[in-house]
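3.2 Worked example (two chains)
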Amino acid sequence: MKRIEIGLLPRILLAIALGVGCGFFFPEALTRVFLTFNALFGNFLNFIIPLLIIGLVVPGIADLGNSAGRLLLITAALSYGFTLFSGFFTYGACTLLYPWLLEGDSLSRMEESASVVEPYFTVDMPPLLGVMSALIFSFVLGIGISRLSGSVLKGLFDEFRKVIVLVIERVIIPLLPLYIFGIFLSMTVSGQVAGVLEVFVKLIALIFVLTLVLLLVQFSTAGAVAHRNPLRLLRTMLAAYVTALGTQSSAATIPVTLDRTLRCGVRPSVAGFVVPLCATIHLSGSTMKIVACALAIITLGGLPVDAAAFCGFILMLGITMVAAPGVPGGAIMAAAGLLQSMLGFDEVAVGLMIALYIAMDSFGTATNVTGDGAIAVIVDRIAE
């Protein structure tokens, strides 16, 4: 009998619905069981995040250095540039729109969402090193390894990356729905869930509109550089957009993205290099979702928005996105350390970020892969 696979997004949505529904009738003893799991899983996330950063960022930077060349530098610069534009554009738009869009909406401090009912017990899992220390260590080591030929360390960290990806795919991602269930169960018990769900709907609508604006900017830039009709280019790439809505994976969409990029007139040699590379390093759509959701949680929590800290967060996020693994939810897991170290998010806030992010995962991935076509058109023109 063929096994039926349920995607991560349906599981997350089901977990949210069940968490809200069960919160109205679960007895306190059963609720505390799920809160105990959440406490343990949250502590495990705190422990694994520095290791996740090292395991993803070190080989990611080393890989870029090993294949350094003019085409790579142009592609990486364009990808990072569009990612930064996405982050700062989203920050500016949300700063202007949130006072109107979220007027009347507020959340108690995230730490209070589990304060009505306490877990039975918790186990402290201190991380081996701090998040910022892990980031600095990863950047230094990654750059250093990229300068060495035949480095034993390169092979070691490639294997370590495989271990980390396995932990994400086999442990974290499968348990996320249960963690999200516990968060929404807790918020229902504490009376906060109605406001949270209303905010979810508003944010999804806003981010969908912002992704369309981002794509128009990317293809207008590509059209101006290549002297092509930007709307025609964008229309040609729509098949990749629709495919990514279903796959939720930039890597799985590569065949369609490559085909549509060739139809945009990009030379096969350029398209064959740029499209697979951008599937890894170009995540402007994912950056947009993370920035918008993070700013929403800060705003709803009644916390002050530090513009300088948020700008630094966006700059670091653009670099960290290069290391995001190609699995559903991979980008938000790679960014979790920055959310904690630079924006002060706790486990519950990170859990809400994950739920928000995955609820919009299709839009972000579709924006990423469609924008890959615009980058390929620009690179093709510059490399002539």
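3.2.1 Second chain
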Amino acid sequence: MGDKKSKFKLNLLDEPKSSSLLSLIDVDRAISELRQGRSVAIRGANGKALIAHASEGLNQEIFQKLTQFSDGTPSLAITARRAAVLGLNQSKGKIVTLTTDPPLTAETAIAIANPLVDLNLQQISISSRIAQFFDSENAAITLTKLARLLPSALTAPLNSHEPLDLGDWSLRHKIALVNAGDIFQYERAATESLYIASDARVPLAAAENTRVVAFRPHDGGIEHLAIIIGSPDPKKPVLTRIHSECFTGDILGSLRCDCGEQLRGAITKISARGSGILLYLAQEGRGIGLVNKLRAYSLQDFGFDTVDSNEQLGFEADERFFFPAARMLQLLGYKRINLMTNNPKKILGLEACGVQVVTRVAHKFASNKHNEKYLRTKAQRGDHLI
């Protein structure tokens, strides 16, 4: 496997950087502002800016405030996935911006963004356009995803009837300003800055000879863990499992998935083999976050499978990327691995990041009545080898 050249391409490799030095801190602040229900200003490559507010937490007062800063009526940015399930048939591009007649309200914007809110589209006339790949609307949606919110934002261009010093404007109105290029590059830049923050011996019930190594980016953002069992030889392919965190499965023992079994089974199998590594990535819900995963569960109770429920929310079936895993292995000194996985896309993703996957080691567990559909969807729509 490691000798084959992969056609897989990381999403973030070719995206534009801002004209100034990349600032992870500016993006961190913008993420925090969105999560706290505040607006942010996003400066595009052309120097112009728009003001954006996540659809979550939107109310009419905030809506009116955005209108005051704008040249016109705010529009709603959603993903092409969400547009498709709404029947808007926008198949090209990543982001679609919407205006409505009657004009958008906070209530309408929330209903369009959230499939769990009742929406009668027959009473609304919707006009849409496909946003450019790297424009500020696209950056706004990327920012909502980084914030683990629904991928939808109310956006409005800042007034352009007079020249604006955006830095001064940001300070006067106490609205965070961030460059679109920094948003697009954030995940990759944060991953490149990962360093080993701590390393401790942690005996486990199934593997007493275990160390846990914590990785942290320089901006103090999302941390990942490596569970190192025994003493893997860096000169040989190391048995490796890459596990995305799953609070419901790993901690609560949820029967809706097989994550808990995969986690504990991997530790047991690695211990039985003598040594290996489990990388525990902070990518809950295949990268959409715990709250959105619970929303997807609610949709599944209405009959949607795991892929369709993600798309109903406006996400891709899988929002993860595997550069953090590659960086962690690099910092630990391992280049070749025998990967415990049933997911061929995980192999492609790792090889695209420079990790040589020597062999695939199957990692299957029996189903139960609660996760049969979940596992069937993995096989039929996710190409998992189960």
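3.3 Remarks
The chain is about 35% helix and 20% strand.
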